[in-house]
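Hey, quick one: can you model this chain's 3D structure?
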Amino acid sequence: MAISISVVLLLLIIVVIFLRNGAMKISHAIVCMLLGFFLASSSMAPTIHQGLVATAQIVGSLRP
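Sure thing. Here's the predicted structure for all 64 residues.
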């Protein structure tokens, strides 16, 4: 059974954990968020998306 988790949700959970542990400040999280928005609107977005899809397929095909 394959469980699909949104990358955005996973990253949000990681950011919340970092914020609670004090490893990341609010200003760092805002900069990361802005970088994500700028990357999504750039010409690199399709390449990044294809790379993430390929990585997810490789990880999904691994059997323990």
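One thing worth noting: Residues 14-61 form one domain.
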